[in-house]
Amino acid sequence: MASQPIPMDPKYIIDLVIKRRWIVMIPFALAMVAGIYLSITLPKIFEASTLILIQPQRVPQNYVQSIVESDPSERISTLSQQVLSRTNLENIITEFKLFTDPDSSSMYMEDKVNNLRKRISVNVSSDRRRGTDSFSLTFQGKSPQTVMKVTNALASYFIDENLRVREAQAVGTSDFLDAELQSMKHRLEEVEAQLKRYRESYMGELPEQLDSNLRILDRLQEHLGESQQNLSEAKIRLVTLQNEAATSRDQSTTVIIGQDSQQETNDVDQMRAQLESLLSRYTARHPDVVRLKARIAEMEKQAQADAQSEPGDVPTIDSERRQPVSLSPEYRTQYAEITQEMRRLQADVEDTKRQISTYQKRVENTPKREQELLSLRRDYQNIQTTYDSLLARKLEAEIAVNMERKQKGEQFRILDPAKMPQKPVKPDMQKLFIMVVGAGLAIGGGIIFLLEYMDSSFKRPEDIEEDLELPVLCTVPQIISRKSRILRRFEYASCTAFGFMSFILFAGFAALTQKGVEPTLELVRKLVNG
Where does the secretion signal sit in this chain (predicted)? Predict the structure, then answer.
């Protein structure tokens, strides 16, 4: 006969469970025993955590601007790399005597460091509403006390390393600005010296001296005109004096002036030059111009007359010098004064012309010097601006360094220090409890289902009617003998005792799950000792 499907009637299922109660209780009890064993023997991993607040600087940024600026996540990531470095983790392993159990004695230091680094985690959190940042530091290990100590030590390392890094960064920035400031100061001094040398080299051609040069040039030109006029007048007086001397010689005195025809020609040329100078300033009707023109015409006539005379009639220079000269003291004095004045005026004219040439060259070179000086001043101004900016930043950096050294800048502050964990985080006891209880019940239920599925007998009258399609007229109840009743009572008592034991195991397993191993064992010891 084919196997009968299991009816889904709740009453039937309850009766079936009661009937096969041992199949349910034994797997459940064994599962509880296994769960308790696993709860006690599985390696326990405890976790301790501390919360660290990133506290802003105490001095308002309007007064002191910090030079250590970075995103909190980036800064914490950098600090994590430094705190979790091999050297620091080796110190932690040595200080707290980690990995001293027999299972870890054969591990290399590199493996210990990597294992320790994997058990440390840093998580950054930000509260945008309050404008605060914080991060949590978590460490996992087998010993609750060691886990707490290591977590607090790591938090202290973070705080100390943050202070050290911030101070080092501030000092480094200050030193860099100081070096740049010294370099810029040296460049500024070089440009100042270059500007000074340039002004000294081209003194007189500088743009600010242009007006002075023009005024001096005007005065020199006026002075040149006056000197040339005075020189012309002196020459006229000399010629007049010579004519008077010649007239006196024709009447009664032989006078040898010692001037040859070449000297007279030079005098005429000088007088013509003087005439041109006078015409450049005065009109042709000016008395000096008229007088000079008359004198030039007179000397030209005299030169023509001398050229037309017989050669024998012209006395030679040597013969004239050999003739006795009779000059009056007054004439000699006037002649000496006039010639001396002419030499002085001629020297003054030449000197004035040289000065005019010098000042004209200065005026002509002034635009060129102005451009060159402008370029030097522009370089000087740029370097000066950079120097002032660096100086201001250097002062700000020094204030920031003092702020960091006095620990008035941004700091890490522990909000929640690590405490000794009371129960492990691994394995997850709640999940283990659910899995063990479910496994015990599932095993019992599965066995019952399998047995019922393999049993082909009829369990109820409905099964007969359904399978044979015949009505059941009556049912005969089970006849229980005295011996069977005794055995059944004993079986009920055993089942009750075993059920109570299963409940005790279940309660113990639940206590281990909720309280942990040590508190549960302590509770058991108290109950046993009364």
Answer: none
Residue 215 token pair: 């005024």
pLDDT over 70, % of the chain? 82
Ramachandran angles phi, psi of 152, nearest 5°: -65, -35
The ranges assigned to domains in the chain are: 10-42+427-528, 46-183+391-416, 217-367
**Residues of the chain below pLDDT 70:** 1-9, 12, 15, 60-70, 127-132, 248-267, 269, 278, 280-282, 286-287, 306-327, 455-460, 463-464, 476-480, 530
SS3 of residue 230 by DSSP: helix
| Per-residue pLDDT tens over the stretch 211-223 | 998 999 899 999 9
Phi, psi of 102, rounded to the nearest 5 degrees: -60, -35
46-183+391-416 topology per CATH:
Bacterial polysaccharide co-polymerase-like (3.30.1890)
What are the pLDDT digits (tens) for 127-155? 666 556 889 999 999 889 999 999 999 99
- Of the chain, the end-to-end C-alpha distance in Å amounts to 60
Cα 292 to the chain's mean position, in Å? 85
CB atoms closer than 10 angstroms to residue 116: 19
| CB of 415 closer than 8 Å to CB of 53 | yes
Q: What is the pLDDT of residues 23-32, one digit of tens each?
A: 888 888 899 8
Q: Which residues are CB-neighbours of 4 under 8 A, at least 6 positions away?
A: 455, 456, 458, 459, 463, 467
CB 117 within 8 A of CB 89: yes
Tokens 């980036």: give the residue: 74
Surface-to-core class of residue 113, CB atoms within 10 Å of its CB (0-12 exposed, 13-18 middle, 19+ buried): buried
Q: What amino acid is encoded at 129 in this protein? A: R
